[in-house]
Amino acid sequence: MNTVTKRTVTFSGRGIGRGSAVGKLNFYRRADRQASAAMRRSRGAAEETEQLRTAIRQASDQLDELYSRTLRDAGEEEAKIFEIHRMLLDDEDFFETAQSLILDGFSAAYSVSEAAERYSSVLASIDDEYLSARAADLRDVASRVAGILSGEQQKNGVGELDGDEKYIIAADDLTPSETVQLDREKILGFVTFAGSPNSHTAILARALGIPALIGTGEMDGEYHGRQAIIDADSGLLYVDPDDELLARYAKIEKAAKDGERALQHLRGKKSRTKGGREIHVYANIGSSDEAATALKHDAEGIGLLRSEFLYLKQDHCPDENQLFTAYRDTVTTMKGRQVIIRTLDIGADKKVAYFDQADEENPAMGLRGVRLTLSRRDLFRTQLRAICRASAYGKVSVMIPMVALPDEVAECRKLLREVQNELAREGVKFDPSMQFGIMIETPSAVIMSRELAGMVDFFSVGTNDLAQYALAADRQNHAVAELCDRGREPVLRMIALAAKSAHEAGIWIGICGELAADLTLTQRLIDIGVDELSVSPPYVLPLRGKIIECN
Ligand code: PEP
Ligand code: MG
């Protein structure tokens, strides 16, 4: 037997879901139903057409069953995909394309796969994440029908490993029905070489709360059966981890499990320090759907709704009603808890093609956040109208990103007043006492915080940007990432300065940057005087647990 020195191979990708897991890699093997010569042989057009109809009926029954099972196990949102599959299956154009291939002399199995291939390449080429994700759905449906036609059952296609073992699935990409049919009891996580964050694999990973990594690039099949660590938090997969890594992750995993169990009793409780100070623990979200997750993790409110994600998801600007519906849904989901909607923070790394922004030498310091919205008042007004309208349905606050100077705030307040007057004239309901706040994420805003505090109802510190501007260290650049870790002290002192200004003016201050979730800093942040901390939903209870241990 060869003795090979163990060397860890690391893959990186986009981490989805949460946490980490250690297990064996199990490569998902999909039968290549599309190219086999046997599938091409026709038994005559009439018979093949009849077989196609029968297979479609059977596939429909399977999808109904999958819908019910997923509805029971994962919920309506996740089950919806099988409804979409049913619709794709019922599509007349799709059926006719397959039938014309049958008339050209091909088998039903080949024809249905080829028809799907033609439609899905069109879908995949569309520059729209939602539609291109449907290409995978169409292939999935066709693969189901072709499988029935060629006598194969759709089955769990993972490679054989020890019966009782749990594993990390590795695949080029997983279709929704493949994901759902995997035996979840045995799955610790999954890695897909391709895949998009909008794919159903990603959606399910989040819903199931398991770690997943997408877009790692091709992985060699020789890794099948090898031990691996998947870490969704850092977006890394280690194959053949060394002992030190294993020891580190064993600790992380144990702590995570113990911690989660121990935290459940904190649900519904206040986040109060031993000294009796109450800190509000809110959640950061990027879409109205995530409000439910925030609530599930017992967030006391939404400290940051990154409203730009709605703009980034589509290829045209959302109109007032679309924005209003998304905000109203968030607000109603949160059942009276505060929802802070940040106005559009497009620019820097978040660009949308339809804004036609000029290329910038240094986009992080360019036309982003409030600078952009003040230069595109049509967009800004539309968004402010939608936010004001949503304020009639709950406790909404509006927050302006990337403020550098007081005149920007004065201008935003003026616009907001104009919008509110306009709505009043139109007889549209809104909450006139809606809080108005700003992000503190530029050194200038810190220095000017005394003046700014007199103009607003609250501050929320964006430490991700504040650190990059304070330390002159690009937050996207790996090479200087470590500088931000070493450079916490200047950032903390800046927060202290802003907190002093806020409290002297009688307003509250929170933090919605990632620093808020760093539990090693919680005591320091409390000492500084922050009133609210807003973190990703899964961090809400751990943070509450930390706060109650603080003085
Ligand atoms: C921040 O800068 O800390 C922040 C919360 O905003 P974003 O990460 O969206 O820039
Ligand atoms: Mg920011």
Care to describe what's here?
The structure is a single chain. This protein is of the alpha/beta class and 551 residues long. The protein has three domains: 2-29 and 156-244, Glucose Oxidase, domain 1, CATH 3.50.30.10; 33-150, PtsI, HPr-binding domain (Enzyme I, Chain A, domain 2); 277-547, Alpha-Beta Barrel (TIM Barrel). The chain contains 22 helices and 16 strands. It has helices spanning 37-40, 45-73, 76-90, 92-103, 108-125, 129-149, 176-181, 200-208, 243-263, 290-296, 308-312, 320-333, 370-375, 377-390, 406-426, 443-447, 449-453, 463-471, 481-486, 488-504, 522-528, 540-547, and strands spanning 9-12, 14-16, 20-27, 167-171, 187-192, 212-214, 227-231, 236-239, 280-285, 301-306, 338-342, 396-400, 435-440, 458-461, 508-511, 532-535. The strands form two sheets. It has an eight-stranded mixed sheet. A hairpin with a 4-residue loop joins strand 7 (227-231) and strand 8. Helix 12 packs parallel to helix 14. The longest helix is centred in the N-terminal third of the chain and has 29 residues, at 45-73. The chain is globular. It starts with 8 loop residues before the first strand and ends with a helix. It binds phosphoenolpyruvate (PEP) and magnesium ion (MG).
